[in-house]
Amino acid sequence: MQENAELPSFQLLLESEEAEELSEYWQKQCCFLYNTIKQNIEEGSIEPLTCKAAEGERAGLITLFSTLSASGLSIKSVGHIFDLVKMWLDVRPRAKVVMKFPNGNLIEISEVTGFSKSDVLDLFEKSIQTSQV
Predict the structure, then answer these.
(1) Are 108 and 98 in contact (CB under 8 A)?
(2) Per the domain annotation, does 4 fall within a domain?
(3) What is the largest distance, in Å, between two alpha-carbon atoms of the chain?
(4) Is residue 1 part of a domain?
(5) Which residues touch 57 (CB under 8 Å, ≥6 apart)?
(6) Which of 9, 18, 74, 99 is deepest in the core (most CB within 10 A)?
(7) Is residue 46 part of a domain?
């Protein structure tokens, strides 16, 4: 698979200890979070990663719901995404979501990490400020 050349600056990378990234089961779980976020954010947009299929594969494009790319998000939207991710993780205790910020910083949100909503909002705000400099 070949990734699209330009990815938006804020990403959610969804991972599980129990399921393979490309399995139909895991992609359906990730699609559920994607749809929930898409329906509930007021500002910005979020889309799954789309890759070209390898030569010889039947599909022309492959949609990976385990990598979500967002753009145009406000701090309020990021806070709302955090809340939705936490609810999604509540019923998937062996999963984690890695947030990749505009400045390249990564944080892991899971049942065992202690990041709060205010931590995430501070990191997002700082990452926007440093990426605009």
Answers:
(1) yes
(2) no
(3) 47
(4) no
(5) none
(6) 99
(7) yes
Distance (Å, whole) CA 85 – CA 109: 8
Instruction: With respect to residue 2, please indicate whether it lies within any of the assigned structural domains.
Output: no
SS in 3 state form for the chain? CEECCCCCCEEEEEEECCCCCCCHHHHHHHHHHHHHHHHHCCCCEEEEEEEECCCCCCCCEEEEEEEEEEECCCHHHHHHHHHHHHHHHHCCCCEEEEEECCCCCEEEEECCCCCCHHHHHHHHHHHHHHHHC
Q: What is the domain extent for residue 36?
A: 10-132
Domain count, the chain: 1
For the entire predicted model, the pTM comes to 0.84
Average pLDDT along the chain: 86
Residues 91-117: pLDDT tens digits? 998 999 999 998 888 999 988 777 899
